[in-house]
Amino acid sequence: MSGIADLCAMENAFETDILGEAMWDYYQGESKGPLMTHSSLDQDEEMPLPHLFRSYDQMPTLEQRALQESRGRVLDIGSGSGIHSLYLQDEKGMEVTALDQSIGAIRCCKAQGVQDAHCTTLADFRQHSALQYDTLLLLMNGIGLAGQLHQLPAFLESLKGLLRPKGQILLDSSDIRYVFEEEEDGGIWVPGDRLYYGDVQYHFSYDGRKGPDFDWVFVDPERLKKTAEDVAFAYELLEEGPHYDYLARLVLT
């Protein structure tokens, strides 16, 4: 796509793309050890790399439902290795664009056969693309790309220009209040400088190296509904998962 910076060609790009490097190594059968996630919740966990390459049958029910609810021209935001784009492209014959700012993720997309995949930021894509879509996919807690809760209204506003009239956003997230101790007044104790309990900071580590810190928000469904309606989206809860996760649809009104 002309005009969009080709982040995949940046020199030494893997220096900060820890997740992408681990994914690309795994795809080539050359893993250099586990990919670890470290969060402000004081949780260090291994991210199973096979999970990032799962088939449709291996996907959680919420993801399967989102793919079945997809319609028209689709933009897969934060596509990862391209598993959702591939299903829509190959199994449903849909026009789909995969978008991720991870160099390694887009390499995996292209290597697996995603026909339209772009390595760029969402902001650059919006700036240089005149296309509009019927469905925006934000899966695997993809609404987390907003960063923190206070940034969510602006993030949703920024997606409007990518949508055709009556276009939809399909997204999943989780209510992580179960991680925290509830206070006597029913409030949630939030550690550090976070204003909302779903505001989490992460970094990845792999092959003895640490990636940069980044913000990732987990939005409870009630908060998402209010925020969406405040910026002129209709909210619909499509399905709830087994572990405080849920799938929602936002439609331009």
Mean pLDDT across the residues is: 91
Structure class: alpha/beta
Unreliable residue runs: 1-12
Beta percentage is 25-35%
Strand order of the largest sheet: 5-4-3-6-7-12-11
Spell out the helices and strands N to C. Answer: HEEHEHEHEHEHEEEEHEE
Distance between the termini: 30 Å
> What is the 3D form?
globular
Radius of gyration: 18 Å
The main β sheet shows up as: 7 strands, mixed
Number of strands: 12
Number of helices: 7
Compact description:
About 25% of the residues lie in helices and about 25% in strands. With about 250 residues, the protein is an alpha/beta fold.
Report on this model:
The protein starts with 17 loop residues before the first helix and ends with a strand. The strands form two sheets. Strands 5-4-3-6-7-12-11 form a seven-stranded mixed sheet, with helices on both faces. Strands 1, 2, 8, 9 and 10 form a five-stranded antiparallel sheet that branches. β8 and β9 (209-210) form a beta hairpin. The protein is α/β, with parallel strands linked by helices. The protein is globular, with a radius of gyration of 18 Å. 25% of the residues lie in helices and 26% in strands.
Which tags fit this structure?
253 residues; alpha/beta; 7-stranded mixed β-sheet; 7 helices; 12 strands
Reconstruct the topology from this structure.
Blueprint: H1 18-27, E1 36-39, E2 44-46, H2 61-69, E3 74-77, H3 83-91, E4 96-100, H4 103-112, E5 117-119, H5 122-128, E6 133-138, H6 152-159, E7 163-174, E8 199-206, E9 209-210, E10 214-217, H7 221-230, E11 233-240, E12 245-252
Helix pairs in contact: 1-4
